[in-house]
Write a structure and sequence with these properties.
With 299 residues, the protein is mainly alpha-helical. The chain has a single domain, classed as Rhomboid-like fold, CATH 1.20.1540.10. 58% of the residues lie in helices and 4% in strands. The protein has ten helices and six strands, in the order E-E-H-H-H-E-E-E-H-H-H-E-H-H-H-H. The longest helix has 30 residues.
Length: 299
């Protein structure tokens, strides 16, 4: 859009609001602009059109691993909120089940590979309830279970999200949780479990791999990981399969995000490589659930 020629001696008017006189011009296109159209720039003012054009031609800042720079870890905060909401909901439904009968939220959405009710009805992941693979991550066995996982999520999640960006971090968390549930289904199909431990161990694995790629001192992370692994195999009623499945997912995806492709690769190509690798990992998990139960004689 260009301003029409102004007769000699006529007052200068805003090119967007022709009834408003002004003495200010856009520093980029030099067209006159009124106060409502002024957008402060590093030098002078720009018009809205030039600001929009400038943003369109400016590349979004990227992290060293190809994700968009994160100002605040919104995904981490959202997952923490969902974990808290899930715990509150399960407490309410548990109380309701005791008072008026019926099933609780934990029973309906907790991690179960395969089970049969007293009426002969089958349930669980191998019975088609695949949502249990992820829904169990938002339920917990008690307040201390929730606080432990929430604290680990708070410590590891914010840093990882800033390293990876929102999308990669969410992918890591979800696939970590699902990987833990898949291994639980294959190894302990008749066991019942809840909690975000699979996703938390995925974060541990990714922090360890990515931290090494960045040359960070990881002794404290290694100690925390070792302590948690010891607890996994020594404390009763802990689903070691969820922990190990999540850890393997975190190590694998962390290696993909940290080392593939080379660091000087364009951000778009890096994103494609990471998306394909993550999708391939997800397909591998699905294939394991479709094929291995029959091979192992679980169903």
């Amino acid at each position: 859009m260009t301003a029409s020629p102004r007769p000699p001696g006529a007052p200068r008017t805003c090119y967007r609001h022709t009834n408003r006189e002004t003495g200010v011009s856009c520093t980029r296109c030099e067209r006159p602009i009124c106060p409502d159209c002024m957008v402060e720039a590093s030098v002078g003012y720009q018009c809205p059109n030039c600001v929009t054009e400038g943003r369109r031609n400016t590349r979004a800042a990227r992290t060293v691993f190809g994700g968009r720079v994160v100002s605040k870890p919104y995904v981490t905060w959202t997952i923490l909120g969902l974990m808290a909401a899930g715990y509150l909901a399960q407490m309410v439904t548990a109380a309701s089940a005791l008072s008026v009968g019926g099933s609780s939220l934990v029973w309906e959405f907790g991690m179960l590979g395969f089970g049969v009710t007293e009426r002969g009805e089958t349930l669980g992941v191998l019975s088609g309830e695949w949502y249990r693979l992820i829904s169990a991550a938002f339920l917990h066995g008690g307040i201390f279970h929730l606080l432990f996982n929430g604290y680990a999520m708070f410590l590891l999640g914010g840093q990882l999200e800033r390293w990876l960006g929102h999308g990669r971090f969410l992918t890591l968390w979800v696939l970590g949780a699902v990987a833990g549930s898949v291994l639980t289904t294959l190894v302990e199909p008749y066991g019942f479990a809840v909690g975000a431990s699979g996703a938390i161990f995925a974060l541990f694995g990714a922090v360890f791999v990515i931290g090494r790629r960045l040359g960070l001192d990881l002794r404290m992370v290694a100690v925390l990981l070792a302590v948690n692994l010891v607890l996994t195999f020594t404390v009763p009623n802990i689903s070691w399969t969820a922990h190990i499945g999540g850890l393997v997912a975190g190590l694998a995806l962390g290696a993909v995000f940290a080392y593939l492709p080379r660091r000087n690769t364009a951000a778009t190509r890096r994103t494609v490589v990471h998306a394909v690798a993550a999708a391939g990992f997800a397909v591998l998990l699905v294939a394991a659930l479709l094929v291995l139960p029959g091979v192992l004689g679980l169903v």
